[in-house]
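Hi V.,

Quick status before I head out on leave. The structure for the redesign project is tokenized and pasted below; the design run finished overnight.
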């Protein structure tokens, strides 16, 4: 029987090959898109799952209920970890983790490597297996280091690494270390990435910060005992705050803190490490490259939308074809076919089409995977589909699609009355209503994606073109490199470029502007008491000519100058910081930023966006404090041939620092990289909107062809009675256009709500204008009209004699 079903199905599918081909195309494209989107979501959700102790690993963060807003911060002071370990028996293991970079020397080879300063428990908490060497306690001694297989190959080549001595320069002072173990390379779905692990006692400033509870500069992770009541442990942590942070609590209360439900103004909390990568906004910032939960939900929704549109196409096309197969059903019933047999026949056809679409869709996904990975910096592979969870998901999705797409059309055809069918009269009222509802849903989703595309495109265009308050077009940002003394490197490179006619100015800074090729982005915030209340300001360590190099406007006072020896203790502040100081004359004010000496304000400059447009411009203070290093060199060049200037500076850098890679980039490139997530989302919206419209139009074409066939006689009669071709085209297209217009109206409030929430993540953003919705609706209606009117025109041009003969 099954064999007969398959034979009959092949004949029927070939007979309706045009419409089945459209079904196949729509489903294949949808499956390809969904495969890539769902694999991306699965990969992001799989982060850190390889850690065997994952359920018991947590990260500390502070919550400060300040008067202005609630602040959450995962940076911890140096003495916190030992104190927690001593005071709380629930903690099985604890480790501090801080990032750094170093110039590693072995023999005559020098390479730059990524360092993590950690405690002994690090490799016991996290699962990074040891491939060679001491697997029990590889960081037992202060000068022990663990390197990855990748770093071992880069440093030693084919030589054995265990027991070798390497020299590392990570804060301007070369030191010798012994390689005690080689760890396996961390997987792609690891939030923590490193080349070398070394003891936290080597972290710059460690000794000075041993008793400093206010200086917070690293992350702390713990492994709790498996039987620990987590909520109870977090409650017991609150006794830790007044014991060690009493001064911070007093300052917060003094400045008008708003206590939480339990009456606390400052709390120490723990976040499950399993939530480390996917940031839902409920916790403090975490180490690693995190993605927002809303982005993953958006990807899932888009994938579901596209698949749903393709399923609607399948249903509508199958229902439309049911009219042409009505006589076949009637004959089969007359010859004794049962409903179960007819249902089986139609379902076999559906399964064959869906299975073919699945194979073609996976093939398309495989073919476009390299381009997808390149565009979205993704690490997904098609091999992920072979895992049990993925296979079961695919099987469940396949059964669901075949059920949704095959059951309803088959049910409609089974309900036809045999006598009416054989007479050629079929009641199509109900199928028409369902078809229209599905069409409205389909184009509502398509129009929604168009609205999202237009708004994201407009916001990204706004982000690219809004003045940031500094010169981003002609300024080159160069990371100093790991292990180098930034101040010495700046002085040396200033001498090298001195006299270069293309170089206008040069300076150095602690923080970059935007995100450069080194991928690093940091910020420092300092708080101090002034006139009885706390002032919090971002700190940027700079060198001479910083304002001049970046074309930042000075509105009062002066910039740092070599003519004044006391400028090493002076500061220059932005307008927002001047407002906080609230003095009659800001210039000349002494700020108690340091315990030993006051910092005198010598100038005020215009506000500029030193962070992304997600954040409002906060108070900013420029300092020349030697405790901050120079990590970036900024070079302003003359407008004109920027490419030539870039190549010239690159060559001089390589000649001056032969062991340090040149990773220079223009500031406009750096600032755009801050919005990678939004750019990727915008690209996905655009691609999804195009795919959704194409799939919708495929179904619209097929349905319009079917309806034209059903109305052939009507068209012939209207032409005989004098209707023009234009009138017939408008008549046949009108019903579809009304449905698409209704779909657009339904999508508008949903689109406004979704995108308004998305824009709320930006401190500076566009206002959603009415014309965006009008344009989205016009695009959808125009596409639908062109699609349907072509078929209507073909039907209208048919000779009425042939039309009347057809029935």
């Amino acid at each position: 029987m099954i064999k007969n079903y398959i034979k009959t199905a092949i004949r029927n599918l070939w007979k309706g090959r045009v419409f089945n081909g459209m079904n196949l195309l729509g489903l294949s494209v949808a499956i390809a898109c969904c495969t890539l989107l769902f694999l991306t979501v699965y990969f992001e959700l799989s982060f850190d799952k390889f850690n065997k102790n994952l359920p018991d690993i947590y990260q500390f963060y502070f919550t400060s209920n300040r008067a202005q807003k609630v602040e959450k911060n995962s940076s911890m002071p140096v003495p916190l970890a030992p104190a927690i370990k001593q005071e709380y028996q629930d903690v099985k293991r604890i480790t501090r983790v801080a990032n750094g970079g170093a110039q590693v020397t072995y023999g005559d080879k020098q390479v730059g490597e990524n360092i993590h300063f950690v405690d002994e428990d690090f490799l016991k908490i996290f699962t990074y297996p040891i491939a060679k060497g001491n697997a029990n306690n590889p960081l037992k001694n202060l000068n022990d280091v663990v390197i990855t297989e990748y770093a071992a190959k880069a440093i030693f080549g084919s030589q054995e690494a265990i027991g070798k001595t390497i020299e590392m320069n990570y804060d301007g002072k070369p030191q010798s270390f012994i390689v005690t173990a080689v760890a396996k390379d961390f997987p792609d779905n690891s939030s923590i990435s490193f080349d070398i692990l070394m003891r936290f006692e080597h972290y710059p400033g460690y000794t000075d910060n041993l008793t400093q509870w206010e200086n917070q500069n690293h992350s702390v992770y713990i492994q709790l005992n498996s039987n620990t009541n987590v909520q109870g442990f977090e409650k017991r942590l609150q006794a830790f705050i007044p014991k060690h942070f009493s001064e911070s609590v007093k300052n917060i209360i003094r400045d008008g803190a708003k206590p939480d439900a339990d009456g606390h103004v400052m709390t120490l909390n723990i976040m499950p490490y399993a939530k480390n990568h996917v940031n839902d906004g409920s916790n403090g910032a975490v180490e690693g490259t995190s993605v927002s939960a809303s982005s993953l939900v958006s990807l899932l929704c888009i994938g579901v939308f596209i698949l749903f549109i393709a399923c609607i196409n399948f249903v509508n096309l199958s229902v439309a074809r049911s009219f042409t197969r009505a006589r076949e059903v009637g004959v089969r019933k007359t010859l004794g076919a049962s409903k179960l047999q007819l249902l089986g026949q139609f379902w076999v056809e559906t399964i064959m089409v869906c299975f073919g679409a699945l194979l073609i869709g996976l093939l398309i996904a495989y073919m476009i995977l390299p381009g997808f990975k390149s565009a979205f910096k993704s690490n997904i592979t098609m091999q992920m589909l072979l895992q049990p969870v993925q296979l079961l998901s695919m099987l469940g999705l396949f059964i669901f699609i075949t059920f949704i797409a095959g059951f309803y059309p088959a049910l409609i055809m089974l309900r036809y009355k045999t006598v009416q069918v054989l007479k050629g009269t079929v009641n199509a009222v109900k199928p028409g209503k369902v078809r229209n509802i599905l069409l409205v849903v389909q184009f509502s989703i398509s129009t929604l994606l168009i609205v999202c595309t237009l708004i994201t495109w407009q916001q990204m265009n706004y982000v690219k073109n809004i003045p940031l308050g500094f010169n981003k077009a002609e300024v080159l940002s160069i990371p100093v490199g790991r292990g180098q003394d930034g101040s010495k490197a700046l002085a040396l490179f200033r001498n090298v470029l001195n006299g270069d006619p293309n170089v206008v100015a040069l300076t150095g800074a602690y923080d970059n502007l935007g995100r450069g090729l080194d991928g690093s982005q940091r910020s420092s915030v300092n708080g101090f008491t002034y006139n009885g209340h706390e002032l919090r300001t971002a700190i940027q360590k700079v060198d001479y000519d910083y304002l001049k190099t970046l074309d930042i406007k000075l509105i009062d006072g002066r910039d740092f100058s070599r003519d004044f020896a006391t400028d090493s203790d002076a500061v220059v502040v932005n307008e927002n910081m001047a407002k906080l100081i609230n003095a009659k004359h800001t210039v000349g004010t002494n700020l108690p930023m340091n315990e030993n000496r006051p910092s005198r304000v010598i100038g005020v400059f215009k506000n500029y966006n030193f962070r992304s447009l997600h954040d409002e411009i906060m108070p900013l203070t420029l300092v020349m404090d030697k405790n901050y290093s120079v990590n970036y060199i900024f070079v302003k060049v003359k407008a004109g041939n920027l490419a030539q200037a870039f190549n010239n500076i690159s060559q001089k850098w390589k000649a001056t620092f032969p062991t340090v890679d040149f990773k220079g980039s223009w500031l406009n490139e750096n600032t755009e990289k801050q919005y990678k997530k939004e750019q990727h989302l915008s690209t996905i919206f655009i691609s999804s909107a195009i795919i959704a419209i194409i799939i919708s139009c495929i179904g619209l074409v097929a349905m319009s062809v079917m309806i034209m066939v059903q109305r052939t006689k009507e068209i012939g009669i209207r032409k005989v009675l004098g209707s023009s071709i234009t009138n017939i085209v408008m008549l046949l297209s009108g019903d579809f256009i009304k449905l698409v217009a209704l779909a657009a109206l339904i999508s508008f409030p949903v689109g406004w709500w979704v995108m308004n929430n998305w824009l709320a993540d930006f401190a500076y953003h566009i206002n959603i204008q009415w014309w965006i919705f009008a344009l989205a609706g016009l695009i959808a209606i125009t596409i639908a009209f062109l699609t349907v009117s072509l078929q209507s025109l073909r039907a209208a041009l048919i000779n009425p004699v042939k039309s009347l003969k057809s029935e």
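Above is the designed sequence. The first helix runs from residue 2 to 15.

G. will cover questions while I'm gone.

Best,
W.
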